[in-house]
Amino acid sequence: MNRRTLLKLLAASAASPVVARPAWALGDASKVDIAEIQLPTGTVSRPDAWRQLLYELVQTTSIEAVDRVATLAPDDVTLFNHPFAVLAGDDAFAPLDDGPLEQLSRYLTYGGFLFIDDATGAEDSAFDRSVRRLCARLYPTRPLAPLPADHSVFRAFFLNPLAVGRVGTHAYLEGVTDGETTPLIYCRNDISGALLRGADGRYAFPIAPGGNRIEALKLGINLVMYALTSNYKKDQAHVRQLILEGRIE
Amino acid sequence: MMTLIFGARLSPEGELIWTSSELAIQLAIVAGVVAVAVAAWSGRRSGTRWIELVLLLPAVALVVAAAAGPVWVEESGHTEAPRTVVLIDDSRSMGILEGGEPRHSQVAAALNAIPGEVDVYTFGRELTPGGPGTFEQGATDLAGALRAVSDRYVGEQLAGVSVITDGLDRGGLRASWLEGTPASELPLPELPGPLTLYQVGSGEAARDVAITALETGGFAFLRQPFTITAQVSGQGFAGFEVPVTLTRDGKVIGAQSVTLDDEGLGEVWFQIKPDRVGRFSFEVSAPVWEGDAVPANNNMHVAVRVVRDRMRILQVCGAPSFDQKFLRLFLKQDPSVDLVSFFILRTNDDMNSGYGNDELSLIPFPYERLFDEQLWTFDVVIFQNFDYGPFFQRNSDVLLGNLAQFVRDEGHAFVMMGGDRSYDLGDYGVSPLTEILPITLNVPEPKVSEFSFQPVLTDAGRVHPVTRLLGDPVENRALWERLSPLDGLNLSGGLAPGSASLLNHPTELTGAGAPMPALAVREVGLGRTMAIMGDSSWRWVMAEAASGHGNQAYLRFWKNALRWLIQDPESQPVQVEATRENYRVGDTVRLVVQVRDVGFEPQEGAAVTGTVSGGGEPITFEATTDAFGEAIIELPTGERGSYRVRVQGSMSGFQVGSADTVFAVTERDPELDEVSADTRFLAALAAAVEGAHYTPDSYERPLSDDAAGRKVLDRVETPLWRAPGLLALAGLLLGLSWILRRRSGYR
Fold first, then answer.
1. d(Cα B654, Cα B656) in Å, to the nearest integer?
2. Which residues, given as ranges, of chain B have pLDDT below 50?
3. Nearest CA in chain B to A153
4. I need a labelling partner for B4 at 20 to 30 A (CA). Which of B53, B170, B417, B511 fits?
5. In this complex, do B545 and A62 lie within 8 Å of one another by their Cβ atoms?
6. CB-CB: which of A1, A22, A228 is closest to B355?
7. Are strands B160-165 and B195-199 parallel, antiparallel or unpaired?
8. Among residues A115, A121, A220, which one has the least CA distance to residue A166?
9. Which residue in the set A27, A80, A229 is minimally distant from B450, CB to CB?
10. Hey, which residues 158-187 in chain A have their CB within 8 Å of chain B?
């Protein structure tokens, strides 16, 4: 894909909502959407960035997504209506009370997925410290650790996208793995910042050296695809075929 | 005169014994002395007094002597003619055919060669009086039989001991001899007479084909090949090619030929890929050849238990979704499931996004391989919002026809889940799947309902194992009423024949005015199918989790569904199992019958009736289940062969269900391992004890010990206390004494 093609696609996407399925679909309630968790402090709300991701999902993959981003608090019980959730922030946030923490833990235990995005893109940030504190409370016995290069999130749809966003400060993803799945993935390169557009349709933030908007988009699509299919790409049939074709080793 | 006095003739070699007790004798003496003293103390001085005493004294003496119980004992004896004992081998090897006749038909000729009165016994494992026996015993213990004769006739010298046998001793005697122990050193008892061995069976190599052993490993995994190895022996058939067939339930499922080696031995293998779970009985058999000595050993039965290693499920999904996510999570976490997933991640509509294939981690969808050669390896196929049209372009009828056959003819299972690519929206109304789906298609627009609804548990759903999430019916119904509403519904024309709706839409009706199914099941041919008419069952996880109830309802629903779909024997309300697959002749078969209700609760007091068929007349039995819902039935095994057990369970007069199983009685018969009479062994044995050995064409009179015989003792006892002459004498003397006393004026 060249730059011109990308610009055409993005321009088109800015002008149109997520393409609706034909009238005989079963309705939008069960279609893929995103819940954006907001805390009193430290988090940022970027629903348009997530809408852009949902649009790209529909355009690029077979996933049926709906143009819906629910912004809600961690203790909002409707969180369970949205199995894919994001938490983006740029500053420290206060530790969650026990109630919201317990609900968030339950949400992740029973199949919810949480993507955390550090919007600062900085080497070191107060948001990052708050995130690590949150993860330690959510998973006292499981570490937040860098994901290996052969993790399914890097094969969920696009093959080996770079783990970058608006910046490329940290060229890896971190996550908490529970058994064969990783219900929480953390990126420190401001993915949402790379996707966010302003009201004029232009991108809200320039890409910093090391960042890559296309790779950020690919990674975002992979994150949603991974949240839905988990370790599907580790199934033997896929691994064999990809090795056979020389696309992975 | 002696007879007149003593009542019998007495011999001077006799002996007098006193039979009364000492006390009685002493009392009699005292009484006699007192009587004489009283008579003498009368104060008379007349001459008759002494005469009276002279008469009284011997009379009293006779009475006292009689009271002491004198008996005259005479002992004498005589010698009777010696007896001959005949032992007849009663084992099954005596039934081996020679020239078309059983070997035991020669027993009569052997008996005719033995003159005079004989004591006849049969022997196998034990010695039994009488003859000629049934020739059905499973053992031949020659040494044991001879020991029993020796014990029975201890102290008596017999004219002879004759044994009629083929010499195929299984009690150890022959084995020792074959291992090199000289016949003279064999552990034989001291015999009470000379031994004569009448051999039945020619001793020439008999011709016999036999299946001597089957190896199966005991159990097998579903759809995993396993091997039945059969050992074939063909005495007299070295170098022959022997055809061997394998049958299951009377149906031939394999045939092999084996060329026997120089020793007449061979081995054949049958590879079987079981397609159902349960117990199955196999029979390996070889044809009966002309002159075959033992037709009964030309076949052998064995039962094999087929278990499911893991349930193999193919999940095909038209687009990743929340519903697909939660189903895959459940299936991947279940260790009993071997899941193969194929998700369509990109369709033709997505090809304009500008990304090249090299950038994607996608692989071709191997639909032809999956729905042709690989299809039969799965237990369950799930179509989750999958439309076949874009993929099965060339041969959709064939591939979907395979799927219909996979269910209907092969006993597998199929699930279709709803969505905008399913049912009529996926054009399945014109596909072969209409033959197996639980609902009918080709409904007019609108083909979906987009509105959220609360499914209603139907009457069938209340008792069906798929929707029985809780054992208590009231709690189960309350749970279904509590579960999250579903987001939308694929509409259908209603139930297909033989189907049942477990959940209905609360208000939607079919074109015929019936409630619109939301969850339907069907038993079609040998297999089962299920239709979930929506794509939001994932809410049964998340909504329950949101309210703190966890995901148990969703897990139970799918666990129930899968067990029902694959017809897991353990999901049946009535189950029967033999505690072993294979028994030996003489074992006790132990059958365990379990009766449960639809909620899998044990049913106490359920009536169980059953039959065991397979050999001879069927055996029927009745039992009642205990508090654990179990009834245990014990039955003796019949003869070798396969047996099928069928049971029915009923509660309060209503049938709960039925079940069946098989077992085999497979004991190899050692009596038929060797078939030729052993001339050499019998000759060596006879020589070792200086006996005689006769082959069938040379039967003669048995050896006889002329000096043998039996002394019989006679003992004659003559009671003298009641000897008539002595009693008369005592009476006469007493009478004269009394008369004399009266004449003297005394009383």
1. 6
2. none
3. B361
4. B53
5. no
6. A1
7. parallel
8. A121
9. A27
10. 158-160, 179-181
CB pairs under 8 A between A and B: 176
Cβ partners under 8 Å of residue A125, min gap 6: A90, A91, A118, A188
How far CA B47 is from CA of A139, B53, B54, B56, B57, in Å, comes to 143, 11, 12, 15, 16
- Answer for the pair B279, B306: CB distance below 8 angstroms, yes or no: yes
Please, is A178 exposed, middle or buried when counting C-beta atoms within 10 Å of its C-beta (0-12, 13-18, 19+)?
middle
Say if B334 is an interface residue toward chain A (CB within 8 Å).
Answer: no
**Residues lower than pLDDT 70 in chain A:** 1-25, 247-249
Helix (H) / strand (E) element for B559: namely helix B552-565
Chain A residues close to B536, C-beta within 8 Å? 26, 29-30
- pLDDT tens sequence across B686-697: 998 899 999 988
Q: Give bridge partners of residue B544 from the DSSP assignment.
A: none
Q: Which pTM value belongs to this model? A: 0.67
**The token pair that represents A214 in the structure block:** 């296309």
Spatial contact of B658 and B647, defined as CB atoms under 8 Å apart:
yes
| Interface subset of A 11-70, CB within 8 angstroms of B | 21-22, 24-27, 29-32, 56, 59-64
Q: Which residue from B minimizes the CA distance to A154?
A: B361
Q: Tens digit of pLDDT for each residue in B147-181?
A: 999 998 887 888 899 999 999 888 888 889 988 88
Whether B64 and B31 have beta carbons less than 8 Å apart is answered as yes
Q: Which two tokens stand for residue B643?
A: 């047996």
Across the interface, which of B349, B352, B361 has its CB nearest the CB of A233?
Answer: B361
- For CA atoms B44, B46, B49, B50, the dihedral sign is positive
Q: Beta partners for B486?
A: B453
Torsion of CA B46, B50, B51, B54, to 10 degrees: 160
Question: How far lies A106's CA from each of A75, A240, B550, in Å?
Answer: 11, 35, 9
Cβ atoms of A184 and A158 within 8 Å: the answer is no
Bond from prior residue into B569 cis (ω within 30 degrees of 0): no
Token pair of B737, please? 């004494």
The minimal CB distance from B345 to the residues A22, A31, A157 is found for A157
Would you state the pLDDT for residue B185?
87
**B180-183 contact pairs (CB < 8 A, 24+):** B182/B688, B183/B684, B183/B685, B183/B687, B183/B688
Do A64 and B329 make contact, defined as CB atoms within 8 angstroms? no
In chain B, what is the straight-line distance between the N-terminal and C-terminal CA atoms, in Å?
Answer: 36
Nearest CA in chain A to B424: A24
Contacts of A61 in chain B (CB under 8 A): 319-320, 345-346, 350
Q: In sequence order, which ranges of chain A are alpha helices (DSSP H)? A: 3-15, 47-60, 98-109, 126-138, 191-195, 213-229, 236-244
Q: What is the pLDDT of residue B48?
A: 72
Helix (H, G, I), strand (E, B) or coil at B552: helix
Task: Find chain A residues with C-beta within 8 A of B358's C-beta.
Answer: 159, 247
* Closest by Cα among B564, B571, B574 to B658: B574
Is B343–A227 a contact, with Cβ atoms under 8 angstroms apart?
A: no
Instruction: Tell me the one-letter amino acid at B34.
Output: V
Where do runs of H (alpha helix) occur along B364-427? 367-370, 396-408
Nearest Cα residue in chain B from A245: B363
Q: Identify the pLDDT of residue B53.
A: 80
Cα B543 to Cα A110, A111, B91, B208, distances in angstroms: 10, 11, 74, 73
- Determine the Cα–Cα distance for residues A181 and A158; give it in Å rounded to an integer: 19
From the list A213, A151, A156, A204, the residue with the least C-alpha distance to A177 is A151
Q: What is the greatest pairwise CA distance in chain A?
A: 51
**How far are the Cα atoms of A28, A158, B214, B319, B321 from residue B345, in angstroms, in the given order?**
19, 11, 51, 6, 10
